[in-house]
Amino acid sequence: MSGYGPFRDQLSRLWQRYWWALAFLASLGFYWRTLGTWFRADDFAWLGLRLSLHQPSDLWTVLFAPMAQGTVRFLSERAFFLTLESLFGLEALPFRVVIVGVQCISCVLLALVTRKLTGSKLAGVLAAVFWTVSVGLAAAMGWMSSANQIFCAAAMLGAFWLFLDRRMLACWVVFLLGFGTLETMVVFPALAIGWALIFDRTRLRPAAALLVPSVLFLVLHFAVIPKTALDPAYQLHLDPRSVSETLRTYLVWAFPLSAVAAVALIWLRNRPALFGALWFLVLLAPVLPLRDHTLHYYLAIPLMALGFLAALLCVCLPRPVMALLAAGLVAGSWIPARRAFYWQKEKARAVQQLVRGVEAARAQHPDRVILLAGISNELFWDGVFDNPFRLVGIKEVYLAPGADKQIDAHPEWGGIAAWLLGPAQVKELFEQERVVVYQPSGESLRNITAAFRVQAERLGDALAAFVDVADPKFSQQVGSGWYAPENGMRWMGARATVQVNAQNAPAGLIELQGYAPQALGTIELAVTAGGVLAGTQRLTGADQQFVLTYPLPAVAKGQAATEISITASRTFTPAQDQRQLSVVFGKVGVR
Question: What topology is assigned to 467-590 in CATH?
Answer without folding.
Answer: Jelly Rolls (2.60.120)
